[in-house]
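All the exercises in this workshop are built on plain-text protein records. A learned vocabulary of local backbone shapes supplies the integers on the structure line. Once this layout is familiar, the rest of the handout is easier to follow. An example says more than a description, so a record of this kind follows:
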Amino acid sequence: LGELKGALAKYAETVFATLQPHEQLAFPLVMRHLVTLGQGEEEAPNRRTTPYREFVADDGENAKTGARGFVDLFIAKRLLIADSDLHGEVNVSVAHEALLREWQRIREWLAENRDFLRMRDRLDSSLKLWLSRGKQKDDLLGPGLPLAEGEKLLKDFEPSLSQAQTGYVQASITEEKRKHRIRDRIRYIVMAGITAALIVAVIFGVVSYQQFRRAERAKIAAWSAAILARSARRNC
């Protein structure tokens, strides 16, 4: 069995060598679509099914240049398999899971991409929940680590994300911005209310002080008048 696995890895490297240079450069992108991490401490690499359309570059998608040629050749050489689902969607996956563990090129790639796979797998879990519950806003990525990871994936690895993943992260960012605007509006209203209350308090204080001063002056004037009146009576 070990010899067969070794032969499979050698065969994959031989097929890889026949790719065009720009197709070889698509290796990391293709693997990010086709590999996931297993459960447990070892986090063994497992195959992941991805729609074929994710490897087809749209106009201007330079990052995906070569991905289609890579996938097509590996399908032709039986290293990848393509199947159609009930909806006619063509999906691609690794034909032999042993390839993920034995091919040295994948093992080296895996050592550098575990963090991406962990973040992407967490994003997948949140995305599935969001879709299963009818795309409720409460199931979008929340502030803190979940949204920060989503933004990092979108910024650094967008070509390696599916359309659904990209849409989910963008919807989460949009919702967080909406909540932020609401918080800013509430903060503005509260601050405006506090400012208005302070202004009213200041005006009330000034008016009260002025009334107090007038009352004091009237009191002093009355007191002075009483003294003058008493003095006048004594002189009489």
About this structure: The chain has eight helices and five strands. The helical segments are 2-17, 21-24, 27-34, 67-76, 98-102, 104-132, 145-157, 163-235. Residues 163-235 form the longest helix (73 residues). The two ends are 137 Å apart (CA to CA).
